[in-house]
Amino acid sequence: MDMATSPSKSMVLEFKEDTALTEMMRLRVSSLQRSGQKRQDGERLLLPYEAVYRLDFPTQELNFTRWYFSLSGHGRVTVTGISQHWTPDLTNLMTRQLLEPIGTFWRNSEDPEDSPLKCLEADMQEFGERIAELAKVRKVMYFLLAFKDGAEAANLSCSIEFTPEK
User: Fold this and answer.
1) What are 58-103's pLDDT values in tens digits?
2) N or C: which end of the chain has fewer CB within 10 A?
3) Torsion 133-156-144-18 (CA) sign
4) Global pTM?
């Protein structure tokens, strides 16, 4: 799943961190903590090791091809898609808006640093196909990326390749 050269007619879209949305979600958590309030029923709060990323779709008619995922060092990265149009400045993120399956990539601490990343291939295939389906009706899609077991955003490169349907 490491980076590779893609065919010329394909389109590789990079996951980009949305720092403004991540910060807004962190403010929601700290606001609830300061005021002593509880989250709404079904609300999904951002955890300290998570960040919001986005994919921008320049065209909507896409077929999923493959993932390009590179992580230097060890750790686990989980990618969870958000199925609804979601505006954290207007509405809170609800757990029912999270897509299944999730994508998980990892390299264990006992694995050599140059060993290939592991993933659940069937889940990654299905997840990529779901993203392509959702791209038909939207120009932007949001994701929660969780960094665990030593993984850091600075050590991550994540993109997804599509081919146009036509």
Assistant:
1) 998 999 999 999 999 899 999 999 887 666 666 788 888 899 899 9
2) C
3) negative
4) 0.88
